[in-house]
Amino acid sequence: STPTIAVIIGSLRKQSYNRQLARAVERLAGDRFAFQTLGIGDLPLYNQDFDQDFPASALRFKNDIEQADALLFVTPEYNRSIPGVLKNAIDVASRPGGSKTFAGKRAGIIGMSPGAHGTVSSQQHLRNVLAAVDVAVLPQPEIALQYREGLFDDNGDIVDERARKRLLLFLERYEAWLR
Ligand code: FNR
């Protein structure tokens, strides 16, 4: 059956390039995967007191991750690392202690930034964090795309041929690795 992919976007802004990238990748993938984007903006800031009585939104988020066959992180870079909202979401889902939400999951990581080397550091940091919660990340290809005006057409598809090819290669490798 079609693998279900939980998509986690590391930006909350409406016009996020990474949100646009996620939508474009979903269309490129066609019917190979069933994608579900998990909102992280309404998760509470993690507090270890939660471990006695976990908030409902956090439990739902954990459940959505557990139900998914695999994860796809689409994230910007903030100050050479992952945005706080994304780290918070991972911290929330990793608890309470002994929690198996992430255990043995597989993930892909992609990102977009207007900067030439944007999201490379962010992706390296995210790999470290995911190792700590027992999530395996597809090693290659790394997808750190540079945003520029006109990269997305009116339908939200990526017009740049090189970027499209990289994303198709990523999807091919990701799908084969998940099998
Ligand atoms: C940024 N930006 C950024 N870009 C980058 O390539 N490396 C970086 O370290 C940072 N640092 C950074 C910190 C903060 C607090 C902000 C708000 C922004 C720029 C960032 O790539 C740009 O705002 C993107 O548009 C963010 O991604 P979304 O929201 O478009 O998906």
From TrEMBL:
One of its GO terms (cellular component) is cytosol. It comes from the Bacteria. GO terms for molecular function: FMN binding; oxidoreductase activity. Residues 4-146 form the NADPH-dependent FMN reductase-like domain. SUPFAM superfamilies: Flavoproteins. Gene3D superfamilies: 3.40.50.360. InterPro entries: Flavoprotein-like_sf (IPR029039), FMN_Rdtase-like_dom (IPR005025), NAD(P)H-dep_reductase (IPR050712). The keyword Hydrolase does not apply. The keyword Mitochondrion does not apply. Keywords: Flavoprotein, FMN. Its cofactor is FMN. This is Chromate reductase. It comes from Pseudoxanthomonas indica.
